[in-house]
Structures are given as structure tokens and as C-alpha cells.
Amino acid sequence: TQLLEQSPQFLSIQEGENLTVYCNSSSVFSSLQWYRQEPGEGPVLLVTVVTGGEVKKLKRLTFQFGDARKDSSLHITAAQPGDTGLYLCAGREGGSEKLVFGKGTKLTVNP
Amino acid sequence: NAGVTQTPKFQVLKTGQSMTLQCAQDMNHEYMSWYRQDPGMGLRLIHYSVGAGITDQGEVPNGYNVSRSTTEDFPLRLLSAAPSQTSVYFCASRGLVYTGELFFGEGSRLTVL
């Protein structure tokens, strides 16, 4: 069972465009993380959100945790080729030690 | 800065062979885990451990064994490899804070013929 649904699965845009990636679930998460993975490497943490409605900004990236803690979004403003990669959301239910990942969104930013 | 080290990086096996993927971390992390990554499937949790002597199953544990005799090491064993186990395997660790960052190794690409 895939707890976290990410959309879109693939996204190809031009440099300078804005984009939003979504991470949705029917489950409530105690915390949610976003990771970015480049080819041949392991994922690297971008952000952790723990409070419903929380918004965090990391330069041109804005992350939001839904009020009910069931969904999250990642918005990138003025995308650059260096933003190219696989973006993964990952959630933890309740007091579980397990971190469950979505299938990822593969972003390509063309110069 | 070693972080999480996985060996080997690449391995080709024949069906039925056994092997062990090694994972070591030098950050004194209590929590360690193994994921497999397949195209279109994202990362799926195989097994995890919250400390030496303690292991538990993830989403896809069948065909894999783990043990945790020390804080630093968390090997993943395939007792009888099958083509369905062809994948990229990632080891990851974090500290006690469960909202903390999960640190990943560079991955081990396994092909089972």
C-alpha cells in the first residue's frame, strides 16, 4: 500500500518558470520531510515540517504542510537547471519509527 | 567525512546465490534502515533497527535478513537471490530524534540474473 501519492510523476519546464509538486495521503502524519535526489546519489534532506499549516522557505523553495497534516506541497519559484532532480516526500505516522516515501517527482529544468 | 558507507557499489549475482550488502555509519546513530529503489516505485523500506540487538520489518522484508550487533554496522543479507531483487539499495541512518534528518549512503546497485 502506497501511503503517499506524489504528483506529477514527471515535470519538464523551462528555466524561470514556477512549479508546484504535491504530496497527498489519507493518513495523518506526525511529521513530513522533503528530500532531493540526484542520479547516482542518495537522497538529501531539504526540509522537515511537523505542525499543521506550517510554511517553510528555503531560498526559492516554499514548503507547506496541510492543516490536517495529510498533505504537503513544494513550490519552486523561478526554477533553475540546478533544481533538476528527483523530489521525494516522506512521512512518519504517529510515533512510528518508519519513514515512508512517496514515489517521487522527477523534475527537469531546461536552460 | 565518511557518514554512511555502503559496499559494494555494484554487484551481479546469479539466481540462488547469497550475498551481504554492508552498511557502516560513523555518526553514532541509533536508527539505521535499508531501502530499495525501483523505477516508478520510489523508496520502499525493507528492514530497520532502532539500536544494537533490535531489528524490525518494513514494507518489503521478504527475502532479506538483517542483524545489528553494533551501533555502527547494519548488514543486509540476501540468502537466495531472485531476479525480483534486482534494484538499487540504500542504507540510511539518523539520530534519536525521530524528526531528524535521514542520512543516506550512495547506494548499491544489485543485478540478479
Topology, please?
The complex is a heterodimer of chains A (111) and B (113).
Chain A: E1 5-7, E2 10-14, E3 19-24, E4 31-37, E5 44-49, E6 55-58, E7 61-65, E8 71-76, E9 85-92, E10 100-101, E11 105-110
Parallel strand pairs in A: 2-11
Antiparallel strand pairs in A: 1-3, 3-8, 4-5, 4-9, 6-7, 7-8, 9-10, 9-11
Chain B: E1 4-7, E2 10-13, E3 19-25, E4 31-38, E5 42-51, E6 54-57, E7 64-66, E8 76-78, E9 87-94, E10 103-104, E11 108-112
Summary keywords:
heterodimer, A: 111 residues, mainly beta, six-stranded mixed β-sheet, 0% helix, globular, B: 113 residues, seven-stranded mixed β-sheet, 11 strands
What does this entry show, briefly?
The complex is a heterodimer of chains A (111) and B (113). Chain A has strands at residues 5-7, 10-14, 19-24, 31-37, 44-49, 55-58, 61-65, 71-76, 85-92, 100-101, 105-110.
What does this structure look like?
The complex is a heterodimer of chains A (111) and B (113). Chain A is mainly beta and 111 residues long. Helix content of chain A is 0%, strand content 52%. Chain A is built from no helices and eleven strands. In chain A, the strands form two sheets. In chain A, strands 2, 4, 5, 9, 10 and 11 form a six-stranded mixed sheet that branches. A five-stranded antiparallel sheet of chain A has the order 1-3-8-7-6, with no helix packed on it. The termini of chain A are far apart. By secondary structure, chain B is mainly β. Chain B is 0% helix and 51% strand. In chain B, the strands form two sheets. In chain B, strands 2, 4, 5, 6, 9, 10 and 11 form a seven-stranded mixed sheet that branches. A four-stranded antiparallel sheet of chain B has the order 1-3-8-7, with no helix packed on it. In chain B, strand 4 (31-38) and strand 5 form a beta hairpin. Chain B is globular and about 40 Å long. The mean pLDDT of chain B is 94.
